[in-house]
Amino acid sequence: MTLLIALLLVIGLAGFAYLAARARAGKMIVAAAGRFGAVHSRPVYHGAYVAVLALAPALIVLAGWSLVGERWIEQQVVGALPAAEQPVDKLDRAALMNEVRGLVAGDLPQAFNPVAPKLAPVYAAAVANGDLLAGALAVALLCGGGLWGYGRIRPDFRARTAVESQVQAVLLLASVVAILTTFGIVLSLIFESIRFFGMVSPVEFLIGLQWSPQTALRADQVGSTGSFGAVPLFWGTIFIGAIIAMLVAIPLGLLSAIYLTQYAAPSLRRWMKPVLELLAGVPTVVYGFFAALTVAPLVRQLAVAVGMSDASSDSALAAGLVMGIMIIPFVSSMADDSLTAVPRAMRDGSLAMGATMSETVKKVMVPAALPGIVGGVLLAVSRAIGETMIVVMAAGLAANLTANPFSSVTTVTTQIVALLTGDQEFDSAKTLSAFALGLVLFCMTLVLNIYALAVVKRYREAYE
To answer: Could you tell me if 303 and 221 are in contact, meaning their C-beta atoms sit under 8 angstroms apart?
Structure first.
C-alpha cells in the first residue's frame, strides 16, 4: 500500500462515515420531531462531526509518516550494512541514499557506489513496509474515531457546536502557521545577514557605490576581494520600480478607473474591467519576453534616433515601461473600488449645483477616494519593487549608478537570483550577501505597506 493509496482510502472511508452518520441522524431526528427541544442540530452537522473525528487522526498519522518516514527508512537501509562500511559523513550518506533511490525508481541505470545495488532491495522493502504500517494505523484510527462519533449520535447532541469548534480550531491553526512562516522567513534573513555583516561592514554595504561580489576561491588565488556597496542596486530598484513604472501605471490606471466608473456605459464596463484585470494574470516571464524582444529594441532605436549611439540594448526604460503596464491593474482596481465606494449622492449633488462632469470628478470624486487611491499606488510600488523576471530579461545585470533611462541597470531581486543560481556554498560573503539584500528588500516593502495602511486609515471617510 503506497502512501497515496492510503490517503485515497482514508478520504473514501471518511466520506462513507459522513453519509452513514447523516443518514442515522436523519432517522433519529424524524422520530423525535414531535417533541419540542428534542432536536438540536441538522443531520449534516452530525455527518460532519463523525467525518472529522474519523479523518483527523488518520491524516495526522499520514502527515507524520511523510515527514519522518524517510529518516526511518534511511536508518533501516544504512543499518543493513556492516558497521565498518556504514558512511559517517552526512554528504556520503546522502549520496549513497540518492543512488539507492535512483536504482529503485529506475532513474539511475548504474550506481557508482558498489554498495548501492545491495541496498536497493532493502530500501524497497522498507518503503513498502513503512507505507503499509502507516496506512494500516491510519485506517485503524479512522475506524475507531468514526465508530466512537457514530455512537454519540442523538437528536439532542450538539453536533453543530462541536463542528463549529472544530472549524475554529482549523482556522486558528491556519493563522498560527501563517504567522510562524512569516517569523521563520524573517529570522532566516536576519541570521544569515548577521553572518554576512560579520564579513562585510554594514556601512560599506549600505552606502558603498560599487557592487562587485566576486571573490577569490582560495587564499593563494589571484582574484577580486569583492565590493559590496549596494547603493547601485537600491537605486536601480527605485529607478525602475518606483519612478519609471509608476510614471506609466499611475496615469493609465487612474484614468482608466475614472473612465470605467464615471463615464463608461454599464454594458461597456462589464467587459472592459475584466479585460483590464487580465493583465494581472499574465505570467511575469511573458512580460519579460515582451520587454526583451519588442520594447527593448524599440527603446534602443529611439535612443539612437535622438543621438545616443552608446545606448544599451538592455535599459531601465524598457523594463520600467513593461513593469508599469504589468501593475496597471493594481492601481486601477484600487482606484475603481475607492471611486465606487463614494456615495452617489455626492456626485449627484455636485452635478445639481451646476458643476460639469470633469469638475465633479476632479473636485469631488477623486478627493473623496484619495486615501484608497494612494493606498493602491503604494501597494503597486511594493509589487514593482519585488519584480524579478522583467528586470532580468530587459534591464540587464550591470550595477550602474546612473539616471540615464537608456542605460543598463540592475535591481536587488535580480542580484539575489544571480547570487543564488547554481551550486553555492553558504559560507562566503558573495552568497550571504543575497540574504542581506533580501532583508533590505523586505524592510522596504514592509515600510511601504505599513505607510499605505496608515494613509488609508488616517484619511478614510465613512459614508452612509
So the answer is: no
Under 8 Å CB-to-CB from 284, ≥6 apart: which residues?
A: 326, 387, 388, 389, 390
Strands (E), 172-285: 211-212, 227-228
Which domains does the chain possess? 3-157 (no CATH), 227-459 (1.10.3720.10)
The x, y and z cell numbers of residue 414, run together, are: 535580480
Specify the DSSP class assigned to residue 261: I
Tell the burial category of 287 from Cβ atoms under 10 Å away from its Cβ (0-12, 13-18, 19+): buried
Dihedral angle computed from the Cα positions of residues 187, 191, 70 and 93, in that order, rounded to the nearest 10 degrees: 180
List all residues 6 or more positions away from 292 whose beta carbon is below 8 Å from its beta carbon.
Answer: 318, 393, 394
**Measured torsion, CA atoms of residues 218, 219, 223, 225, in degrees rounded to the nearest 10:** 110
**Which of 392, 390, 264 lies closest to 332, judged by CA?**
264
pTM: 0.70
- Share in percent of the chain as helix, strand, coil (round to 5): 75, 0, 25
Q: What is the DSSP string of 271-337?
A: HHHHHHHGGGGS-HHHHHHHIIIIIHHHHHHHHHHTT-TT--SS-HHHHHHHHHHHTHHHHHHHHHH
Closest by alpha carbon to 152, among 36, 17, 277?
17
Classify residue 44 by burial, with Cβ atoms within 10 Å: 0-12, 13-18, 19+: middle
CB 46 within 8 A of CB 21: yes
Q: C-alpha angle 190/191/194, rounded to 5°?
A: 85
Coil vs helix vs strand at 448: helix
Cell of 464: 452612509
3-state secondary structure of 182: helix
Query: Which phi and psi angles does 140 have, rounded to 5°?
Result: -65, -45
Integer Cα distance of 47 and 410 in angstroms? 58
Sequence-separated (6 or more) residues with CB below 8 Å from residue 433: 196, 200, 205, 213, 228, 230, 419
Within 10 angstroms of residue 35's Cβ, the number of other Cβ atoms is 10
Rounded to whole angstroms, the Cα distance separating 210 from 217 reads: 20
pLDDT, tens digit, for every residue of 284-317?
888 888 888 888 888 888 888 877 766 777 888 8
Predicted confidence (pLDDT) per residue in 254-295, tens digit: 999 999 888 888 888 888 888 888 888 888 888 888 888 888
- Judged by DSSP in three states, 63 sits in helix
